[in-house]
Backbone:
């Protein structure tokens, strides 16, 4: 199942994406993982494969590759894998899930690919999976992600103050959410 937008499309992450080495390079780049939990320990091939097998192949998660749908600058070939996005874990009883993503190809930062990927996965979650609420936890210094989620229709639900340790201090976790309907979003 692929989800197509104007600039990017999402497809299920495949084992070959791990084997190709780009994902491994991204997930071990301190600049890419600056605001990800993956920054806390080295990511070996075996660790990545175990994550893929446990998360990516479960019934409660959708782990998708973000791929270029265009050939405009930055000059990348059509279909190039530039990052990942995950929906899950899904709480099927209460109808909610979390979205998390990263753009690993730094040439693709600030172009809007993340926002479009969030919109595509949100639409899928609401329209196909019948979920009613999506959340995202974003470390406070990560202004780019906060803006991407806002542009995708998410709003700040709250802040978990000094939730995570970051080098020499505790930082906030901004919890954002989006509901399936405007009525829920605005009540």
Residues:
């Amino acid at each position: 199942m692929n989800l197509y937008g104007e600039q990017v499309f999402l497809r299920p992450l495949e084992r070959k994406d791990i084997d190709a080495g780009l994902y491994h390079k991204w997930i071990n780049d301190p600049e890419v993982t600056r605001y990800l939990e993956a920054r806390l320990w080295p990511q070996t091939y075996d660790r990545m494969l175990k994550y893929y097998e446990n998360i990516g192949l479960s019934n409660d998660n959708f782990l998708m590759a973000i791929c270029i749908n265009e050939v405009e600058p930055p000059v990348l070939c059509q279909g190039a894998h530039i990052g990942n996005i995950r929906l899950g874990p899904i709480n099927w009883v209460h109808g909610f899930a979390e979205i998390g993503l990263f753009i690993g190809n730094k040439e693709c930062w600030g172009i809007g690919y993340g926002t479009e990927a969030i919109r595509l996965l949100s639409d899928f979650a609401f329209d196909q999976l019948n979920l009613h609420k999506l959340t995202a936890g974003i470390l406070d210094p990560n202004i780019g992600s906060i803006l991407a989620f806002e542009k995708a229709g998410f709003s700040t639900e709250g802040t978990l103050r000094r939730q995570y340790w970051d080098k020499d201090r505790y930082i906030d976790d901004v919890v954002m959410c989006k509901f399936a309907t405007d009525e829920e979003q605005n009540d």
User: Anything to note?
Assistant: Residues 83 and 104 are 5 Å apart (CA to CA). The chain has a mean pLDDT of 89. The first helix runs from residue 15 to 19. The chain is about 30% helix and 30% strand.
